[in-house]
Write a structure and sequence with these properties.
Blueprint: E1 9-10, E2 29-30, E3 42-46, E4 49-54, E5 62-68, E6 80-84, E7 94-95, E8 101-110, E9 120-129, E10 138-143, E11 147-153, E12 159-166, E13 173-180, E14 189-194, E15 197-198, E16 207-208, E17 216-225, E18 233-243, H1 246-249
Parallel strand pairs: 1-7
Antiparallel strand pairs: 2-18, 3-6, 4-5, 5-18, 6-17, 8-13, 8-18, 9-10, 9-17, 10-11, 11-12, 13-14, 14-15, 14-16
Length: 252
């Protein structure tokens, strides 16, 4: 059970939470499949492909398909197929910086998604870039015990499981992460919605966290996994958006 458009550069979205108030506005960014992978700052395929296909469930139209055969091309690198970042209509980049408040929403479906006891598969991550970059502050991970969890890594790389739910393959689910971006855990925080419902993170509606430890953060979708997991995997991505509040990115 469940536990519990802008110019390039900084967003300049400092402020309090606006998750449950105000009208929906145009998102800061959205992944339009008609534009292919050009909406992302980049893709990482080691090995793999990112393409646009019809939703295999017939529910949501054109959808991104991220596929990896799982066969390593470099013995020193982990298998991954991921999108990276967000490219705006004016050619700029969304890079979340100190003081920004952003909401990221999307639908995901995985089929197949091999897992293995004691290993992990990262499905979404908030990733640091620049001086001081290390383990991602936030990641959505599939585990070998048949669950998916939202994990926080603090500046000392201590990890905390904030939330978890059973892993379901072959089914769409909707996620929203609200992030106050700060390297100060007294100022940074995280909120989370699953299938349209707010979730408790370690018993709190907003979990205080240092969500920045480098120059900036952005996020990544796909499959990135530890070496104990083998076999082909596919992640489907639909309706991905970044906005100033929950209503900007919530999917119905």
């Amino acid at each position: 059970m469940v536990s519990g458009v802008v110019a390039a550069g900084a967003l300049g979205l400092a402020g309090g939470w606006h998750a449950d108030a105000g009208q929906s506005a145009a998102p800061l960014w959205q992944a339009d499949p008609a534009k292919g992978t050009g909406v992302f700052e980049g893709v990482e395929t080691k090995p793999g492909t990112v393409s646009v296909v019809d939703d295999p469930k017939g529910q949501y139209g054109k959808t991104y398909k991220l596929y990896t055969s799982g066969d390593k091309v470099d013995p020193d690198e982990r298998v991954r197929v991921e999108t990276r970042g967000h490219k705006t209509s004016d050619g700029g980049r969304l890079r979340f910086k100190e003081g920004d408040t952003v909401y990221v929403g999307w639908r995901s479906m995985w089929n197949p998604l091999p897992t293995h006891s004691g290993d992990w598969v990262v499905l979404w991550q908030l990733k640091d870039y620049g001086a001081g970059a290390a383990t991602p502050p936030l990641s959505l991970r599939a585990r070998g015990d048949g669950t998916v969890d939202l994990e926080y890594a603090d500046p000392d790389l201590k990890t905390t499981q904030l939330w978890n739910t059973p892993l379901e393959t072959g089914q769409w689910h909707h996620y929203v992460v609200g992030i106050k971006v700060s390297d100060d855990p007294a100022k940074g925080s995280v909120r989370f919605w699953y299938d349209g419902k707010p979730q408790k993170l370690k018993g709190a509606s907003a979990y205080k966290a240092a969500t920045l430890r480098a120059d900036w953060v952005t996020d990544k979708w796909g499959v990135y996994r530890s070496d104990g997991v083998t076999g082909a995997a596919t992640a489907y991505l639909n309706g991905a958006k970044v906005g100033r509040n929950y209503e900007d990115v919530a999917l119905r």
